[in-house]
Amino acid sequence: MKRIGLTILAVCLPLFLCRPASAQHSGPYVGAFVGGSSLITAKASDDLGNFSLKFDPALTGSAVLGWDFEPGNPVGEGRVELEYARRSNTLDQVTFVEGGFKGGGKVTADSLLVNFFGVFHDVGRWAPYVGVGAGVARMEASDLQVTGQPLASGSSVVLAYQLGAGLDVALTDHLNLDLGYRFFGSTKPKFSEVNGRKFEMDYFSHTAVFGLRVGF
Amino acid sequence: MANLICSCFVLLLLLSGCGWNDTPTRQNDFIPLTSIVITAVSPAIDSSHTIAAGTSTKLTATGHYSGQFTRDITDQVVWSSASPAVAAFKYSTTPNKGRVSGATAGSAALTATVGTISSPGFTLTVSGATISELKVAPASLTFAKGLSNQFAATGTFSDTTTQDLTFDSAWLSSDVTVATVSDDLASKGFARALAKGTAAFTATFASKSGTAAVTVTEPVLQSIAVTPASPSALSISTVSFTAIGSYSDGTTPDITAQVVWNSSSTARATVIGGVAKTLTQGTTSISASLDGVTGSTNLRVTGGDLTGITVSPSAPKLARGTVSRIIATGIFSNATTRDLTGVVEWSSSDSAKAAVTSTGSTLAWLNAVDNTPLTTITAKSGSITGTSALTVVSPTVQSIAVSPPSLALPVGSSGRYTLTATFSDSTTQDVTANSTWETGNSGIASVGNDDSDMANKGRVSGVASGSATITARYGGKFVTAPVTVTARSLQTLSVSTLPTGFIAGTRVAFTATANYFDGTSMDVTESTTWTLDKPYVAMLTDSQNQPGQVVAVDSGSATLTATFGSKTQTTTITVP
Q1: Which of residues 39-98 of B touch A (CB under 8 A)?
Q2: How far is residue B51's CA from residue A186's CA, in Å, rounded to a whole number?
Q3: Which residues of B touch A95 (CB under 8 A)?
């Protein structure tokens, strides 16, 4: 995770010294993002009580298809987009009454969100933005384990949302560099334990992304 | 916009939190149980694996889970004996599950099983030793009514071994009204003290018995609660504390009079008999102690420190034999003033000529007893004093006059007449409290004329619709004034608003106005019932003599409720 962050910083540092190269784009665009996601230690619950799930940070990727509003648009300056993202994190540790145990397996979130971002073009050299998104996510628990013993598996479709903020840098008339942060959450996905019980867990993640958007 | 961006990031950070870090409540049953180990609770038996015939011992089953952790599974396992005739598990419920009883001499392999996992055999030897002595511990015990204690029985056997026989003995108390000892399987040997007195506990096993002498004393004090908890009070005021004791028998009597009271800072407040007298602002701990037990609470004193006292009127001239209200006002370091009439010490330089009668609350009366060119009246609080120079003369009454000339009152409300006398030396004096007041028709209007309630002399209350004449008499003269009482239908009740700057020690005189359906309004402050729900935020100074007057005590919000007739109005009072 730390290495990913340093890489993103190293790549982007020169860009911070540049001035926007071109005028603001309006119209359709596509984009692709990569980054790192870190899940918040989750509370998991079944009819026997609560336990916690701690996950490793992991790479994340997303693709967007959207529309940049033209300057002066009555609905505000910004963009609306459809975003597909995948976050897949390995279960690192499971903590029960007896203590923490090594985990295994992955929880993967495939989300499809509609995002609305407000962009502040009048700040100066950079265009910061904030926004919200909502949609659905398919959560899949793949072979979750405790010290090698099966814990749970299965999939669940849940409502998902995110809050985002970041910086836009217009590299050309049609190419934007996007450095962003996303807080992603969902309603509680339910999975089946190996013993047949159902359990539900929290799902919240911090994600740092770096990507390019190409306008048409 | 920068603020908007910052706000969004703060929101994101708040949403992110740090994850769930509470204590888990679920046990790990995903890791399989791999082995079970049986141990005896008694270290001696765990070492020897031997008990005497006719006795029992408690075993524990510990589950080992793949080398990851262990767990006590005594209650989950199935206990079994390979030789039930030698040793058997007779009890299937907690807390005696796992207790094995020896029947006859021999050996038995005991196992604990969960599913397909069984413990290695725990070989228990049942000896043929016979009991030679049984002792109960403690051999004697003095404990207070309401308390409990666990007794134990230990047997010494013919082979010189000893064994805990608490469970296997029969327990009996010689006087169950004084103390009981349990013979229930779940609580053998558990004693409770019920009443003052003595008793003997007997434990019997086989043919042997052991005894313990028990003395139950009066219940002992275990804790003291001082109430009110953490109050706030204005300086130069009093707060009454109560000490509630919690005794070993569960009783909670009021021990205010028995405890020794103490204030950690006598500069802030002193306390005698549970009544604290506040002096300077700050916090002090008020404690109550009895029999080595102490309870305490903090008292926060607000409203500034007293820096001076003014007495009004400052130079009264009164006619001999009359009385007049006298008021002491404190000046405080936080630039507030407050009525201290009821809490200062009043004195006269010549009590044969003049005296002050304080009726508590906020009232004090200056009595002009005899002629004097100058008598000094002093109001004192600690080292701070204020004075008034009184002159008493004996003029003759020339005339009296009542004001206002007339009163018009709605039924249920009240108004006041004031009587002023003009004397032969051309001076005038309010003699309302010295006069005799009469009503011509008490069914229409009543008037205050109680010498023990001089503050309400001349106060007229509307009883029913109609007209009445009020007569006031003083110095051989009389004067009359009409009162018209009408039945009006009350529409609303309004209360004056709270001004700004209502800091601790500040006084505000709220007024209540009755608004009638006929479009008229009337000040009904004196006829209104005033209450405040949080006396440590703000308090009514004197609901009898100063109705509606509120003084701020400490930071917070309180609700002032005014009730008149069928209407109630509430106002939120906030002290910053």
Answers
A1: 65-66, 68-69, 71
A2: 61
A3: 24
* Å between A53 CA and nearest CA of chain B: 9
**Which of B69, B163, B151, B155 minimizes the C-alpha distance to B125?**
B163
Q: Is B490-575 assigned to CATH 2.60.40.1080?
A: yes
**pLDDT confidence bin for A47, thresholds 50/70/90:** very high
The total of other beta-carbon atoms located within 10 Å of residue B404's CB is: 11
Q: Which of A42, A95, A101 sits opposite B68 (nearest CB)?
A: A101
Cα–Cα distance between B374 and B388 in angstroms, integer?
Answer: 10
Cross-chain residue pair B26–A97, CB shorter than 8 Å: yes
* B306-393 matches B490-575 in fold: yes
- Which tokens go with A138? 């398919």
Q: Tokens at residue A188, please?
A: 């509680």
Please say whether the dihedral angle defined by the alpha carbons of residues A130, A133, A137 and A139, taken in this order, is positive or negative.
positive
Structural domains of chain A sorted by starting position, each given as residue range(s) with its CATH number in brackets: 2-215 (2.40.160.20)
Give the pLDDT confidence of B448-477 residue by residue, as tens digits.
Answer: 999 888 989 999 999 999 999 999 999 999
Helix (H) or strand (E) holding B528: none
Q: Which residues of chain B have pLDDT under 50?
A: 1-6
- Show residues of chain A in contact with B4, CB under 8 Å: 130
Considering all CA atoms of chain A, what is the largest pairwise distance in Å, rounded to the nearest integer? 60
**Domain range summary for chain B, segments of one domain joined by +:** 35-127, 131-217, 221-302, 306-393, 397-486, 490-575
Considering CB atoms only, which of A50, A147, A193 is closest to B31? A147
Chains A–B, number of C-beta pairs less than 8 Å apart:
98
Q: Report the alpha-carbon distance of residue B79 to residue B57 in Å, rounded.
A: 13
Higher pLDDT, A8 or A121: A121
How buried is residue B397: exposed, middle or buried, by Cβ count under 10 Å (0-12/13-18/19+)? middle
CATH code linked to domain B221-302 = 2.60.40.1080
Q: Specify the CATH superfamily of domain B131-217.
A: Immunoglobulins (2.60.40.10)
Q: Do B16 and A206 touch (CB under 8 A)?
A: yes
Q: Is A96–B68 a contact, with Cβ atoms under 8 angstroms apart?
A: no
- Evaluate whether B214 touches B178 at the Cβ level (below 8 Å): yes
Q: Which of A46, A147, A202 sits opposite B68 (nearest CB)?
A: A147
Write out chain B residues lying below 8 Å of A97, CB-based. Answer: 24-28
Is residue B218 within 8 Å of B176, Cβ to Cβ?
A: no
CATH number of B397-486: 2.60.40.1080
The pLDDT tens digits of the residues spanning B493-525 come to 999 988 887 888 888 999 999 999 999 999 999
CATH number for the region B35-127 comes to 2.60.40.1080
Contact A181 B12 (CB under 8 A): yes
Q: Report the C-alpha gap between B410 and B491 in whole angstroms.
A: 13
Contact A149 B4 (CB under 8 A): no
Chain A CB within 8 Å of residue B9 CB: yes
| Local structure of B573: helix, strand or coil | strand
Of A96, A128, A151, which is closest to B24 when you measure between CB atoms? A96
Q: Which of A46, A98, A163 sits opposite B69 (nearest CB)?
A: A98
| B11 inside 8 A of chain A by CB | yes
* Pairwise CA distance, residues B195 & A52, whole Å: 51
